Prior knowledge:
By secondary structure, the chain is α+β, with helices and mostly antiparallel strands. The protein has one domain: Nuclear Transport Factor 2, Chain: A (Roll). The chain is 46% helix and 29% strand. A hairpin with a 2-residue loop joins strand 3 (114-123) and strand 4 (126-137). It is globular, with a radius of gyration of 15 Å. The model is unreliable at 7-17 and 22-33 (pLDDT under 50).
Amino acid sequence: MGRAGRALRRRRAAALLGALAIASGVSACGTTGSSSGGYTGEKGEVARAISNLESNATANSPAKLCDEDIAASVSRRLERDGSTCLKAMTTQLRQVDTFTMTVESISISKAGKSASAEVKSTWSGKERDSTLSLVKEDGHWKLASLS
């Protein structure tokens, strides 16, 4: 792969991580709020994972985000593209100031290894609906992608 191809892959990985961070409640300063509803069981675990991600972001803790909240597949993709999760999260935490999010619905795969959460978010005054994809790694739900 040539220099242009590597640069494009780095930009795509950075954009993916930025979107993950923004859609998942990352807030470097200002206010953050979320509503994860009254989910129980495995859906409650997914809702708590999203809430924990938001808490770690609010605490401005990129290391915790990478260690506890972001799926290994995302970290590996960033490393292949010449960055690290820690660098990407640190950059994103500097760029986001106000964010709110509400979990609208959660679904778990039959195998129980993946989940999706429909969320409504407001970032810098703009509302958007998104789907967060999570995977279960070592018994914990972690953010894998956004659509």
